């Protein structure tokens, strides 16, 4: 009887594995939805639509990009965390997914419990620009003025808790200055405000060279200068080596999505990132270094970033809540 039970148990296990493999092989059988927590025209929206256009060809299904802007990306994250865990609804994430747990203690979702990493798309630099009318020609000019006039300069962002907001909070801390935050509904609105002179400073993703005679780029993050803006020095060159923030992008899903489905999406995304059109748009035009990592590697990256921003928020809570 013991041998029979073992044989039956082995047969049942084999059947379960076969069923799981078959389920994974069948995925996807319908269109996928990529949910973006920020408005159309933002850097994360651009990344989502670029990846979606090629990923849909890879998987043989259409992909819908749905913008659910609000609360620094938290509305979208909460929506996806509660969606059916079948792999058909994915969250496009950036740094804000790691910032939120520290900034909002009353979140309706737990980033590390209710969501799981699926694929790491890539990471790119941030660039600090000022409105030309301010007359700053170097980062030293900006810092010197800001130290002499605390709170006089203002800066724009895509919204409270978004990457441009927290990137500037960190910049203020590293340089010892204090600027006034003016949040907008999205990155495109914040950039328009900088161009129009409504804000003095904006730290945002590179998004190509984005040349304009109305703004002056003063510094860029990264170990070396970007080929898209070769005349712009790095923060490290200018004496701030600790300020080396990157803007990353990736995909997450509800935590209960089966591992085989996650693995299949991950493999499809990684293959898609090798597409010449993706490389041209994201790397050649926007300076994003593309990644091809496992879900586990991306999860470890997010966990480390959550810990980093927890410390940053704790140190700067008073400035953030002004």
Question: How would you explain this protein's 3D organization?
Answer:
By secondary structure, the chain is of the alpha/beta class. It has two domains: 32-123 and 247-321, Bordetella uptake gene, domain 1 (D-Maltodextrin-Binding Protein, domain 2, 3-Layer(aba) Sandwich), CATH 3.40.190; 125-238, Periplasmic binding protein-like II (D-Maltodextrin-Binding Protein, domain 2), CATH 3.40.190.10. It is 45% helix and 19% strand. It contains eleven helices and ten strands. It has helices spanning 2-26, 43-59, 74-81, 96-103, 111-114, 139-148, 163-175, 187-196, 259-272, 276-284, 295-320, and strands spanning 32-36, 63-67, 89-93, 115-131, 154-157, 180-183, 201-205, 215-220, 246-254, 289-290. Strands 1, 2, 3, 4, 7, 8, 9 and 10 form an eight-stranded mixed beta sheet that branches. A two-stranded parallel sheet has the order 5-6. Helix 2 crosses helix 9 (259-272), helix 2 packs antiparallel against helix 10 (276-284) and helix 7 packs across helix 11 (295-320). The protein is globular. The termini are far apart.
């Amino acid at each position: 009887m013991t041998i029979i039970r073992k044989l039956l148990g082995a047969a049942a296990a084999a059947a379960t594995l076969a069923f799981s493999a078959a389920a994974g092989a069948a995925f996807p059988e319908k269109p996928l939805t990529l949910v973006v927590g920020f408005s159309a025209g933002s850097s994360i929206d651009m990344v989502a639509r670029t990846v979606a256009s090629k990923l849909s060809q890879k998987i043989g299904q259409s992909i819908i990009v749905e913008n659910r802007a609000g609360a620094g990306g938290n509305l979208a994250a909460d929506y996806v965390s509660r969606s059916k865990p079948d792999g058909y609804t994915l969250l496009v994430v950036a740094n804000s997914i790691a910032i939120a747990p520290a900034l909002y203690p009353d979140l309706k979702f737990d980033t590390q419990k209710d969501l799981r990493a699926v694929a790491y798309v890539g990471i790119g630099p941030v660039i600090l620009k000022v409105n030309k009318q301010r007359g700053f020609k170097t980062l030293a000019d900006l810092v010197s003025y800001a130290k002499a006039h605390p709170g006089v300069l203002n800066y724009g962002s895509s919204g409270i808790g978004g990457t441009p907001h927290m990137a500037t909070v960190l910049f203020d801390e590293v340089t010892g200055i204090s600027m006034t935050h003016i949040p907008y509904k999205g990155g495109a609105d914040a950039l328009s405000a900088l161009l129009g002179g409504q804000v003095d400073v904006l730290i945002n993703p590179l998004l190509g060279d984005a040349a304009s005679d109305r703004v002056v780029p003063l510094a860029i993050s990264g170990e070396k200068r970007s080929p898209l803006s070769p005349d712009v020095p790095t923060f490290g060159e200018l004496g701030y080596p600790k300020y080396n923030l990157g803007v990353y992008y990736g995909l997450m899903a509800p935590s209960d999505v089966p591992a085989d489905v996650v693995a299949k999406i991950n493999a499809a995304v990684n293959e898609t990132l090798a597409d010449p059109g993706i490389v041209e748009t994201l790397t050649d035009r926007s300076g994003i270094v593309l990644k091809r990592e496992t879900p586990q590697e991306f999860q470890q990256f997010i966990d480390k970033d959550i810990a980093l921003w927890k410390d940053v928020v704790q140190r700067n809570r008073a400035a953030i809540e002004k």
